[in-house]
Every structure is written in structure tokens, then in C-alpha cells.
Amino acid sequence: MSGPAARARVFAICSDFDRPLGGNKKLYRHVDILNNHGFDAWVLHEKVGFRCTWFRNSTRVAYVPDLPGLGPPDFLLLTEAHASPGWPIPRGVAKVILNQNCYYTFNSFSLDPKDLRTAYHDPEVVATLVVSDDSRAYLEYVFPHQRIHRIHNAVDEDLFTFSAHKRPLISFMPRKHSEELLQVISLLKFRGVLRNFELAPIEHKTEEEVAAILRDSLFFLNSGYPEGFSLAGAEAMACGCIVIGYHGGGGREYFRDEFCYPIRQGDVLAFAQRVEEAIGLHQANPGALAEKARKAADYVRTNYSSERETRDIVGFWSSLRAEADGDSTR
Amino acid sequence: MKTILFLCPDDEKPSGGVRRMYRYVDILNEAGFAAYILHQKEGFRCRWFENNTRIAYVVEDKVAIQGRLDYLVLPEIFGPTTGRIGRGIRKVILNQNPYLTFRGYSFDKDDFTTPYLDPETVAVLVVSHDSEQYLRCAFPKQRIVRIHYSVDPNFYRYHAQKKPRIAFMPRKNPEDLLQVINILKFRGALKEYEIVSIDKVPEQQVAEILRETLIFLCFSHPEGWGLPAAEAMSSGCVVIGYHGMGGMEYFKEEFCHPIEYGDILGFARTVEDVLGLHRKNPAALVEKGRLASEFMRRNHHPDQEKKDLLNFWTNLA
To answer: Cβ A111–B190 below 8 Å, yes or no?
Structure first.
């Protein structure tokens, strides 16, 4: 596919942190998509030689100390963490914020009502990218003059594939609100509900291992919040799990009653009761649950495809580039 | 005369739960029971609040008290093996926050260690309807008895003259608080209001601040009952925020603004709406605060709590 002339460079600032962090992986993917479509894009790390190695990639990486002067027509892509008042944002270059979790927007801001420092009011910040309708509503409310553009996260369709053949397995990610999961599991076990089920805590696993567990799991307990999009829930749905749990804010748009069992955040008792009901339903009418899981997987595959993610990202940067080119020829 | 020991952590950090245990021991002693707080470390006593509560200590694995020990009261926070403490003694669990019940338990689905199924545990005391439901669900065969927590209306006194002040306690869910305040400030909604963070101040000062506060933002979750919001209501504040589950029973829409836990945008929007109402019709807001205070006085008076507690211990065979 031919793209616009490779003139402006896009540098995506990424933390030097080589442990599983969905946001960093998405940032690498963002850069790959741009490079595959005629842009000149780089992940930018501080430490020379650093690269995320916890997932497979051959993304183009540049380093801050080696960086030649940034300036028009370049773009700097900041994460929501880099858009905080304590981070020294370079001047003289246009910036875009990729806010992957709106609920982290104000981390390291102050409670001082007179402290109004924010990158979102910086005239050099030309737009903010978000990954859910929930995030868009949040940021449009706080910064009504900021240009907010939504992109759709993709669930990796090669990895998180649908399977109708399920084992009596309940999986969950203990790193997300472990204390609440422990309550849900304890409530269920003391009620004798778990006798015929296996539990699969998903931790310290490769992505391939996670996908394999999800393909086998009848139920997935989603305990993450707050979430910019809640990828884990969508990946579990793509694998055909019955998802029970929190949408975390960002997942509200796909946590629909027809696909899954959404629980009010923090309502541990309702969480356990819903799991018990779903287990009862599975025993009484396994076909109904399987149909729900299939619908969920279809929805995720249709709405969170790689193709759509690519279209959103390329579409956004193409229009930004066109505007910048228009400005410079005026 | 029943002799009752309340096992209490040796922790000098302010904790509403510990304070409650001291108070229950005082009430029981006044009513003719022989009740003690039981600390591990000889000579330890909570000094962050004024008290002269009767205390017993564990010395060389023995408790020096007069007469035979009838009951040991265990807090909910000591984990699955708590039942092994004081073998041979009947036990009551005072569960002031059911959301801490399973702290220290395991994900092993075949590990059923818990004091709640121990035959020596004769009852569980809880402090809200929500707690009652939670524990009944987990342990349907256990005897669960509910006590009404109370707020002292003379200490958290109603006051109708409010300053344009918004107060909160920053220790509870500080990330959510930070978001709500920042959303409001970047929208310019806080300009005419004083923002007061209630942190590390004596109880007397908390009560004074609340008395003059128009709006109290509650970020606590999860809660057994939710004392700070109740104290704010008793003082006549309009409370906006999380009921923390335990507070669901008194977070009534006629006098406060419950927000679904984690709904940051809904929280900020509601504060903005309430501030708008305050500018348009300040009397309506003051009336809400009055209704809240009245509700607390009527339903959560210290006399009720005392009655519940004495009823339970008197009727315990």
C-alpha cells in the first residue's frame, strides 16, 4: 500500500520497562502500522540499546541521546504518563498524546486547585488518541477544546482464536485486584460451588500460554479496573469464554448482557452470585451459554479487528499529515 | 456474669474498628459484664483516643483475668487460622468489614480452613445489612447477628451555617480523588469553593471541619458500614460519593448523591450539578444536609447500638 511521502517523522516515547505491559506492546504496534503504511515512525527509548523483549518484535527503535533535532514537520507521540506535569516535554515540535487509560490521566497531578499545568492545554499538543468511547467521553468532558480521536484496539486474531471445546475451567488474572478475586473464589468454594471445576490463575505466562488457557476456559473472571479498554476481557471473549466481571470503564462498550455477565465494580457478592448462576445454567442448559460465548466472540472479531485498528491509526495520521502539509504550503 | 475478651491488634495507628472494640468493652462493663480488650504486648494500650478501657494481656501464653473465660471475640482481620487461637473457648467473630474476611486465604479450592466453620465459633457480629448478606452467602449455617453502628450526634453535631467548602479524606482511594478534583478544577468548577483535605487531624478537629462543610466527597470502598460518610451526614453535609457497599443502606437519594464505585466521570458531573444547585438555590442544599442529619440521629443513635450489643450478649446462651 502506498502512503504519503515519508517526510515527517513520528517518534513514540516509550518507558524503558521490559515487563509485560499491554500499553507498551500497543505502542510498538502503532509504530509498526505506521511504518507499514508509508510513514517514518520510531519507538523512542531513553536508554541506548534498550528494546522491549517480552513480546516478539522487530520494531524500529531510536534513542533519545542519538536523536537529531526534533522540529517541524516531526511529531512526538506521548503516552498519558508522559503527559503529566512532572515530565519535561520538548518544545518546538507538534505532539500527539496516546492516552490508553484515561483513568491514569491525572496520576502525579496535584490536589492544588490553582495548579493548572497540563499538556492537554499545550498549543503544541495537536490531538489526543483514545482507545474507547468511555475514554473519549472522559477526556472530552475535562478538556472540551482538545481534539480527541478514537482508535479501536485490536484483539490479535491469530493468537486469541475461538474454541467451542471447553473444559470445566475458570480462569482469572490474580494480578488484577487479587483481594477481590480471592473473595469471589472463597465465597464460591465455601458454598461448595467449585467442586467440579478447575481454577486457572493466569500469571507469569507468555501470550501463547495465556491464549491456550483462554481457549480451554469455560469461564473467565474479569477483575481489572480501571481500564482504558480492558483488552483481557475482549481476548477472553474472542477465545469463546463466558466472561463474568468488571468492564473497568473502558470495556463498557462491549460488556453487554447478551455476550457476558457484567458486574458493578467492587460488588464482590454479586460477582460470586453471578458465577454460581452461570455454573447452574451451564449444568442445566450448556447450549445457551455456548451460544452467548459464540455471539461474544463474533462481536469482538468484527469490532476489534487488526484491520480496523490499522484503518483507524493510518486514517488519523494521514489526516494529521495532510493538515500539516496544508499549513506549510499556505 | 459473662467474661468476654476482645482480641485486639497491638497497633497504635488510628483505626475505627479498634476504637469500636474499646467502646464495646466499655458498654459491656457498664452493663455488668466482665469484658476486656486483649492485647498481646504487656502494657500496650491505644493512646490515639482518650480511654480508660479495661485491658488484659497475654503473659507467657496465659491471660490474667479473674474467673473463668466465657467468650473470646475475634476480629475479622486475622485470617483463616484464627480459629486455632484459644482452643476450648467459645468464640464470637466481630466482623466489621466483610470485604476483609478472606484476607490471607488461598486460591486453593480444596483448602477449607476458616474460623467461620469452626464448631467453637458460636456467632458472627456484623455492622450492616450488606455485611449480613455477604456472610450469610458465604456461611449459610453460621449464626449472623447485626448491630447498628452509630454516630454520636452531640459530637458530629448538626450545623446549618455552611461555608462554601468541599471536604474529603485523601487516604481512601486517592487515585479516584485526584481524578475528580482535577477534572473539576480543569473545568473551572472549583473557583468559588474552599477545598479541605481532612488528613491526620484529631477527631475533635474532624468534627469541627465537617460542621462547617457544605459538601463531603466520599471515596471509601469497600466499607463494612462507612463511618466517615455517616459522620459527615450527621454534621449536615451533603455527601457525594461511594457508599462502599456497607453504606448502601443509608446512602439515600433524598439526602445524598450515591455514585457507582469507579464512575469517575459520573462523580465529577454530580459534584458540578450539585454546585450548580448550590448557586441557584442554596437553601435546597442545606435542607438536604438537614434531612441527612435527621436520618442519622433517628436510625443510628448510640442508644440503638448499645441496645443491639447488650441484646446479643444477654441472649447468648
So the answer is: no
Is the confidence at residue B61, as pLDDT, over 80?
no
Tell me if B264 and A103 make a contact (CB, 8 A cut-off). yes
Q: Do B261 and A264 touch (CB under 8 A)?
A: yes
Question: Which residues of chain B neighbour A101 with C-beta distances below 8 Å?
Answer: none
Residues facing residue B241 across a β-bridge:
B218, B258
Residue to test with chain A: of B95, B97, B101, B102, most A Cβ within 10 A: B102
Enumerate the domain spans of chain A. Answer: 9-153+306-329, 167-303
Query: At residue A328, does pLDDT exceed 70?
Result: no
Q: Is the dihedral of CA A24, A30, A32, A34 positive or negative?
A: negative
Environment class of residue A122 by beta-carbon count within 10 Å: exposed (0-12), middle (13-18) or buried (19+)?
middle
Superfamily of domain A9-153+306-329: Glycogen Phosphorylase B; (3.40.50.2000)
Write the secondary structure of chain B as one string of H (helix), E (strand) and C (coil): CCEEEEECCCCCCCCHHHHHHHHHHHHHHHCCCEEEEEECCCCCCCCCCCCCCCEEEEECCEECCCCCCCEEEEEHHHCCCHHHCCCCCEEEEEECCHHHCCCCCCCCCCCCCCHHHCCCEEEEEECCHHHHHHHHHHCCCCCEEECCCCCCCCCCCCCCCCEEEEEECCCCCHHHHHHHHHHHHHCCCCCCCEEEECCCCCHHHHHHHHHCEEEEEECCCCECCCHHHHHHHHCCCEEEECCCEHHHHCCCCCCEEECCCCCHHHHHHHHHHHHHHHHHCHHHHHHHHHHHHHHHHHHCCHHHHHHHHHHHHHHCC
User: What Rg value do the Cα atoms of chain B yield, rounded?
Assistant: 21
Q: Do A9-153+306-329 and A167-303 agree at the fold level?
A: yes
Residue B101 at interface with chain A, using a CB cutoff of 8 Å: yes
pTM above 0.90, yes or no: yes
ipTM here: 0.95
Cβ within 8 Å, pair A226-B264 = yes
Substitution target from B265, B270, B271, B272 for chain A, most A beta carbons within 10 A: B265
Distance CA A269, CA A266 (A): 9
Q: Which residue of A has its CA nearest to B112?
A: A190
Interface of B with A in 258-317 (CB under 8 A): 260-265, 268-269
- The per-residue pLDDT for A3 is 44
Query: Least CB-CB distance to A265: which of B137, B178, B262?
Result: B262
Report the residue of chain A nearest B265, measured CA to CA. Answer: A138
pLDDT value of residue B237: 98
**pLDDT given at position A221:** 98
Instruction: Kindly determine whether residue A191 and residue B138, on different chains, have CB atoms separated by under 8 Å.
Output: yes
B61 contacts chain A (CB < 8 A)? no
For domain A167-303, is the CATH number 3.40.50.2000?
yes
Question: pLDDT digit string (tens) for B169-224?
Answer: 999 999 999 999 999 999 999 999 999 999 989 899 999 999 999 999 999 999 99
Q: How many CB atoms lie within 10 A of CB A268?
A: 25
pLDDT grade, residue A2 (50/70/90)? very low
How far is B104 from B253, CA to CA, in rounded Å?
A: 36
Structural domains in chain B plus CATH codes: 3-149+302-315 (3.40.50.2000), 163-299 (3.40.50.2000)
Q: Which of A104, A143, A186 to mutate to test the interface with B (most CBs of B within 10 A)?
A: A186
